[in-house]
Structures are given as structure tokens and as C-alpha cells.
Description:
Residues 25-67 are annotated as: Disordered. Helices cover 76% and strands 0% of the residues.
Amino acid sequence: LTLAQLLSDLVTLRVSDPSAALNLVSARPSTSPSTAATINDKNANKNANEQHKAAGDAGRNDEEDKDLQRAKDLVKLHYEVKVAHSEGRFGKELEAARELVSGV
């Protein structure tokens, strides 16, 4: 991935609903071989997530919490990098890193 693609994905995570963000960052392989079944699985997951939210946080398992926390951390990191870059805090560090790379 290029940096622009990564940043674009991070923006997508920030503006999407939590269940969509979770689906974007989830590394779980699809168990269904067909596209129709995959779509049905995604719809079932979305419905399950909505029911889960209605039931409250008591029913969440640790894996879902970890995935959601990873998505939140990714969005937070993107925001921090964006702010630091706009304030020019990366200028000197990037220049020093480029000099080190070109010297090798």
C-alpha cells in the first residue's frame, strides 16, 4: 500500500459506522466460497452487531472488543499523524531519515 491509500483507508474508518470499520480492519477469512453467501454472511454479521449493541456491552466477547479497539487506535494514529504533519513536526525527522537512507 502506498501512503495515500493507507490514509484514505483511515479516513474511511473514521467516517464509517463502527461495525463497518470493524469489517474493514478484520483479518478473518471468509468461510463462504460464493459471493452471495459472503454478502449474506456480512448482512448476518451486521444484524448480529446491531442486536449486540441493543443488548449492551455485557454480551460482548473479548475478540470483538480487541478488533474495535484496533480500529479506534488506527483512527487515532491517523489523526495524530495528520495533525503532526500539518504542524510541520515531521519535516526535520523526515529529512534526517532521508539523509540516512541516501547515505547507505
